[in-house]
Amino acid sequence: MEKARNKTTFGSGLIVKIKGETMVPPAEETPKDLHFLSNLDTRVHMIDTIYFFNETTDVGRLDAAEIIKDGLGKVLVHYYPVAGRIIKNEKGKFMVHCTGEGALFVDAEANLTLDEMGDFTKPDPATYGKLVYGHLDQRNILLNPLVVAQVTKFKCGGFVLGLSMNHAMADGTSTVEFMRSWDIVDVFNTKAIFEQEMLITKSFIFHRENLEKRKKKAMEDGVLRRCSSFEVLTALMWRARTQSLRYNPDQQVRLLFVVDVRSRLDPKLPKGYFGNAFLLMNCQCSVSEMLDSPLSSIIERIQRSMKMVTDEYVKSTIDFLEEPKGTLPHSSTVFLSAWSNLGYIIVWILDGENRFSQALPRYL
């Protein structure tokens, strides 16, 4: 294992020291070919998730890092494109070159126990950022591995898996499929235990009873026949952000949110499809329209946008994205994505016993 120097991160009481870095290729020979990426697969930044595992029964016998590294090599046989690298062709289109170079595996250790990390349902981005590998080349991301896995062992015997995956390869649902195949034997189809809001470096928890009250209040004026938790939370956060920034009343503000298209295509995508299968939908209005209207009107805008996503709309959007498009102004645009229904509560068998983990999404 390659030794790592000067890669120790401090702050907030947590010190993470990287012991070594290894490139893990697929455990078996895989095809060496090229795959074109679709027009939905153009986001080449890394998406991070963090998985906490409680202490093992016999720390001396079980080396979590070695077991996970071995499993990574095996899962890359089936998902061999993510062991390659992204390139651009002569037309500037992204492609995956299936070189079999592998994924980067990082072995690290922390100075704390998991209990000393505090409340996992209220993650501190600065602290948890040390649990994912932060030393990739940001100036030329195409040179980086498409998957990076950092295992950080804690003093109590527990450990954290920090997974970074290039968004051009997979969306949230496909990442769950990847994790399921990584020696995971079961997935509980339950709700996530918290809702995370990352507009500022704090987390907020909305309990079920509070959500129900907010949905009921949003429907009091009779404009809405129904209202989901995602819709009411998205509307609340969009309006709160707009109000806090004190825009001019005539300023146009935008909301971008993710719509999964797997079940909206005809025919539907097969179960286990791996890749990006979502659209970013856009709502827009003036500041005065938003702040002078009831919450139900904002939710209605969101519902209309979601209803637009049909098979025909998806295919038309893919054609539309054939040519590069400009980006929306960041200052007046907010992006929201719900992870609560992706199935990120997982079980691994590591030492003959089930190890439960809840993933925490982290955007860089």
Describe the structure.
- This protein is of the alpha+beta class and 364 residues long.
- The protein is built from eight helices and 16 strands.
- Strand 9 (147-153) and strand 10 form a beta hairpin.
- The two termini are 28 Å apart.
- The relative contact order is 0.17.
- The strands form three sheets. Strands 1, 2, 3, 5, 8, 9, 10, 11, 15 and 16 form a ten-stranded mixed β-sheet that branches.
- Helices cover 23% and strands 26% of the residues.
- The longest helix is centred in the middle third of the chain and has 17 residues, at 229-245.
Sketch the major β-sheet. 10 strands, mixed
Helix content: 10-25%
* Tally of DSSP β-strands: 16
Structural class of the helices, strands and pairings?
A: alpha+beta
Q: Enumerate the spans where pLDDT stays under 50 for 5 or more consecutive residues.
A: 1-6, 56-61, 184-199, 344-352
Estimate what percentage of residues fall within beta strands: 25-35%
Average of pLDDT: 78
Count of DSSP-assigned helices = 8
**N to C succession of SSEs:** EEEEEHEEEHEEHEHHEEHHHEEE
Distance between the termini: 28 Å
Integer-rounded radius of gyration = 22 Å
Q: Categorize the overall geometry.
A: globular
